[in-house]
Amino acid sequence: MKTTRISLISSLVCLLMAVPAPAEDALIDLKVMTPETALKLAKASMAFCRKSGYQVAVAVVDRMGIAQVILRDRYAGAHTPETARRKAWTAVSFREDTLALVKLTASGSPQAGVRHVTDALMVGGGVPIEAAGSIVGGVGISGAPGGAEDDACARAGIEAVIADLEM
Q1: How far is CA 54 from the centre of its chain?
Q2: Which CATH superfamily is domain 35-166 in?
């Protein structure tokens, strides 16, 4: 009986050791903004800029930096849609707002070389959009008198949709 019990326990231990450990998932889940949310954010950003007297372009990109929405106000310059897109792309790619990147990548700094990355634009007005601890996109504004003003418009747009993103 004792031999049978030892054999049974040995068999169970061997069986448990034979079960493979759970492997890391091969796929991950991503949060992505809906086009409706991206449009709401863009419109809110533009409305804030208009109240401040600025004619701007707004670009909202997804977490991969691909444009979801680009809006250009009537009198915003011809260069503003592409500039806004590049600011949003830069914010997502470097996971930092472009106003901060202006300082972090200044000439002579160790990070100055990233200014040469294709499409990177280290000018204030690009802000990453975060929800539930992840970056889900970015917004870029171009056309206000300076980077700080563009940044304020971008943050106003994010504030308008933050409750939607947090759900």
Answers
A1: 24
A2: Haem-degrading domain (3.30.450.150)
- The pTM assigned to this predicted structure is 0.83
pLDDT 10s digits, 110-142: 999 999 999 999 999 999 999 988 999 999 999
113-129 burial, b for 16+ CB within 10 Å, e for fewer?
Answer: ebbeeeebbbbbbbbbb
| Helices assigned H by DSSP within the chain | 2-18, 35-51, 80-94, 98-104, 147-166
Contact 42, 58 (CB under 8 A): yes
Let me know the angle formed at the C-alpha of 35 by 31 and 146, rounded to the nearest 5 degrees. 95
- Domain segments of the chain as ranges: 35-166
Paired sense of beta strands 57-62 and 67-72, if any: antiparallel
